[in-house]
UniProtKB/TrEMBL annotation:
It is found in: Membrane. GO terms for molecular function: transmembrane transporter activity. It is a multi-pass membrane protein. It comes from Salix koriyanagi. This is OLIGOPEPTIDE TRANSPORTER-RELATED. Its main location: membrane. InterPro entries: MFS_trans_sf (IPR036259), POT_fam (IPR000109).
Length: 368
């Protein structure tokens, strides 16, 4: 919050040099604190790569692709868990039945005295098989950012703090009040399942883009039909519409993150095998990175498609000449498609034992 309030204000109204020097000093301080604490950090020695197990399953299943699964698979398939394994025992599921062939025991397969397979690329246990499975700132620039009738003008980049405020208020409210109430109604430890929370987050994200489109359409209409209050550095007229109208969409964005992001991190951490938790943690951030690239590609695509059209570039530097609201509606449409795909996957998914007391089918029912 300090970065989008105090530091942004210093950069906008005092000095860029000082505004950049403050975060540089804070980053240096954090590095010093990090290295000071390395002596007390517990380092667990690695014991092989969890990805090798994935490769073994794929290779073994491919080698045995011509075999038929036994009728009583729960008993007949090879089932072995190392004595020192930190992974929770997983029950066999019906998904990816092709991979179950990796656990079929043939006459050629050999088993060690401790029960493990002598050649993991030919015979894998069923346990191994189951383990594989900011355009708001631009809007603010062309809106009335004064507080009341005073001369103080809120920096445009500071408006994103409303996302953080909504998230900061919602998390304790949800954890201390809503979850206990839902727990009494549903009998589940978390009130609702992880998949349900993800779905709610997606719905809120769609609502966020729809509200953003409505606000932008109204902002542009006021800027073009009513007296303006100034000109931006790029020549665009500043609408007399208050910048506080951006608060609803930013608050919805914060609530969406509160549901979706937190549920995703919890989902990856609980549903991945225990020896793949480091990969699970990085999956979330890898997804964010990929989404940033996709977002950049989408913006470039919209620029190229609309720049030569009669209506003009939707994402023009002067928002009054563009169609940013239409871009928001396109994002909302993509969000609806994404939600539909998510519901299909959620209906098909099966939780690990003990990770959630609900089934994935219940998740889709509550979301819909």
């Amino acid at each position: 919050m300090v970065s989008v309030t105090a530091i942004v204000y210093v950069q906008s109204n005092v000095s860029w040099a000082i505004g950049l020097g403050i975060p540089a000093f804070l980053m240096l301080l954090s590095c010093v604190m990090f290295f000071v604490g390395t002596n007390i950090y517990v380092i667990v020695k690695p014991q092989g790569s969890p990805l090798s197990s994935v490769l073994h399953v794929l290779v073994a299943a491919t080698k045995k692709r011509g075999l038929k699964l036994p009728e009583n698979s729960a008993v007949s398939l090879f089932s072995y868990i190392p004595a020192k394994s930190i992974n929770t025992k997983l029950p066999r599921t019906e998904q990816f039945r092709y991979l179950d062939k990796a656990a079929i025991i043939t006459d050629e397969d050999q088993i060690n005295p401790d029960g493990s397979s002598t050649n993991p690329s030919k015979l894998c246990s069923i346990q191994q098989v189951e383990e594989q499975q900011t355009y708001a700132v631009f809007q603010a620039l062309q809106m009335d950012r004064h507080l009341g009738s005073g001369s103080f003008e809120v920096p445009a980049a500071t408006y994103v703090i409303f996302t953080m405020i909504a998230l900061s208020i919602w998390i304790p409210l949800y954890d201390r009040i809503i979850v206990p109430s839902l727990r009494r109604l549903t009998g589940k430890e978390g009130g609702i399942s992880m998949l349900q929370r993800m779905g709610i987050g997606m719905i809120l994200a769609i609502l966020c883009t729809l509200v953003s489109g409505l606000v932008e359409g109204n902002r542009r209409h006021i800027a073009l039909t009513r007296p303006t209050i100034g000109i931006t550095s790029k020549g665009g007229s500043v609408s007399s519409m208050s910048g506080l109208w951006l608060v609803p969409q930013l608050a919805l964005a914060g609530l969406s993150e509160g549901f979706n992001y937190i549920a995703q991190i919890e989902f990856y951490y609980k549903q991945f095998p225990e020896n793949m938790r480091s990969i699970a943690g990085s999956s979330f951030f890898a997804g964010l990175a990929l989404s940033s690239y996709v977002s950049g590609f989408l913006i470039t695509l919209v620029h190229r498609i609309t720049s030569g059209s009669k209506t003009g570039d939707w994402l023009d530097d002067d928002l009054n000449k563009g169609k940013l609201d239409c871009f928001y509606y396109v994002i909302a449409g993509l969000g609806i498609l994404n939600l539909g795909y998510f519901l299909l996957c959620a209906k098909w998914y099966r939780y690990k034992n003990g990770a959630d007391h609900s089934t994935a089918e219940m998740a889709t029912k509550h979301i819909v």
